[in-house]
Amino acid sequence: MPRTARPLECDHGQRRRTIVESLLTDVFHGRILAGQHLVTQELADRFGVSHTPIREALITLAGIGVIDLQPNRGAVVRKVSAREVREICHVRKALECEATRTACGRIERDQLQSLAEDLKRLTSPTSRTGARFIAKAREVDSRLHDMIANACGNLFLASELNRLKILFRTFRDVSWEHDNQRQDYHRLTEEAHEHLAIVDALLAGNRSESARAMSRHIRSGIRHWSKALPTASAGALPPRQQRSTPRRKTPLPNHDSSH
Hints:
Blueprint: H1 12-29, E1 37-38, H2 40-47, H3 51-63, E2 67-70, E3 74-77, H4 82-103, H5 109-122, H6 130-151, H7 155-181, H8 186-204, H9 207-228, H10 239-244
Antiparallel strand pairs: 1-3, 2-3
Helix pairs in contact: 1-3, 1-7, 2-3, 4-6, 4-7, 4-9, 5-6, 5-8, 6-7, 6-8, 8-9
């Protein structure tokens, strides 16, 4: 299992989040396989922290359906299939389209205009390469989706989107890393155009069109993520373990969740 070079130097809540993001990235890159046990002491040694943030991170991972916490066995990584990635995204679409519809008219106009200017710069041919482009695209993507969640006027909906966004953004970051390795920035530019359509509809105060633009954006993301997360289902559980392992409560439709 990959190890960090030094202990995490951040506050307690941020430590937990960093651990969750790191472990999710390992799972979706195939560095941690389905059926693998996550040992608290090993993780504490890896991240240079006490057991407490490790246990909290494992509870978070169980809550979004990536691991099972089993009696007498501890934390075991679940198999996350391409189908589940799609199902997660479909639930995300339902949640985020509603959040976009209700956020329309609630977001400060100057915030939207600033976002639109940043998005236009991302669509410029001169900016479509390299780590700086990806970092800016990540920041703008997170800003837009957070802005919508925070302005939707529904505390439960905002809380649910906030709870699941670590998973969404791991999908995004892993797929964008895949694109960067191939030096293929088409999807990032495409996303900037999709985001701009959402912002334009919000600026126009068009609730229906803003929700439709968000729906189109997430449908495009589903198609891309399903191709760009080739190791999401790596390391299937042995048949006996598959039969005996109860499914956790996950945020599939019946889990959502994105840069």
